[in-house]
Amino acid sequence: MEPRNGPSVSLLAGGHAFNTAPPVRGYDHRVILRCTRRLLRLLGTEPAADPVPGAEDWYGNLLWFDRRKCLLLTHVGTLFSVFEADVRAGGVRDTHRLVTGLIARELAREGLPPTTFGLLGWQELIVARTADRSVLGCMNDMAVLCEHAIATSGGLRQADLVDLNGALRRNINSTRGYQRPVDLATRRTPSQH
Question: What DSSP letter does each residue of 107-127 carry, written as one string?
Answer without folding.
Answer: HHHTT--TTBTB-GGGSEEEE
